[in-house]
Amino acid sequence: MNKPGREQGSADSDFKQRSDKMTISVLDARPALLVVDLQKGIVGLPTAHPMADVISNAARLADAFRSHDLPVVLINVDGGAPGRTEQSRPVTDFPAGWTDLIPELNRRPSDRLVTKRTWGAFTNTGLDTQLKQAGVTQVVIAGVASSAGVESTARQAFELGFNVALAVDAMTDRSADAHHNSITRIFPRLGETGTTPEIVDLLEAAAHGKQGSA
Fold it and tell me: Is the bond preceding residue 145 a cis peptide, omega within 30 degrees?
């Protein structure tokens, strides 16, 4: 069941409401896909958009990146930052299987697994070094939650010098307002936003361009 919020609908309905109407225009030669927190203990929580659509789009992106021999990083969370907060947070003693990646992502041996213990995937994980050693200059980010794990990872990637793209129909949040704020106000300042079909089309176009110049 989806939690009521600003409005119900698919994740890309918010994308269509963006004030500047710009979409992603280009992918670097070596982008990586980062899939944030699509794990068994999280995907069953109430969300602003249908989780099934988010999972389907994230899985499609992962398959597309793999088919072009581009890095796929599957990220799960197994803890939280220790600082005091005004809002209560879930306990960190997670039940068995809580951190397991969902099977729909179809993890492959070539995928990288990163376990984080904060919102952002770059904090104390070595992800920055791994990506740069692999020649990655751009990250495409999907997953949950738009205003937490996704936004924090996007902010870190931007500050570390990566070009950032965000697949807005492959993410959601427990709060519709928080999701809308991230994709309309924050993400355009960190990178480019687009939908799964747009990103897949850019991957295909880049591959055809390489073939034509070979």
Answer: yes
Structure tokens at 97: 């299987």
pLDDT digits (tens, 9 = 90+) for 190-211: 999 999 999 999 999 988 776 4
Count CB atoms within 10 A of the CB of residue 109: 4
**What is the rounded CA–CA span in Å between residue 24 and residue 141?**
13
The alpha carbons of the chain give a radius of gyration, in whole angstroms, of: 16
Residue 177 CA to its chain's centroid (Å):
18
In CATH, which superfamily holds the domain spanning 31-79+105-213? Isochorismatase-like (3.40.50.850)
Amino acid identity of residue 61, one-letter, is L
User: Please, which residues have CB within 8 angstroms of residue 20's CB and are 6 or more apart in sequence?
Assistant: 188
Q: For residues 140 and 69, give the distance between their C-alpha atoms in angstroms, rounded to a whole number.
A: 15
CA dihedral 192, 142, 159, 88 (to 10 degrees): 130
Which pLDDT score, from 0 to 100, does residue 112 have? 98
What gap in Å lies between CA 109 and CA 144, rounded to an integer?
A: 23
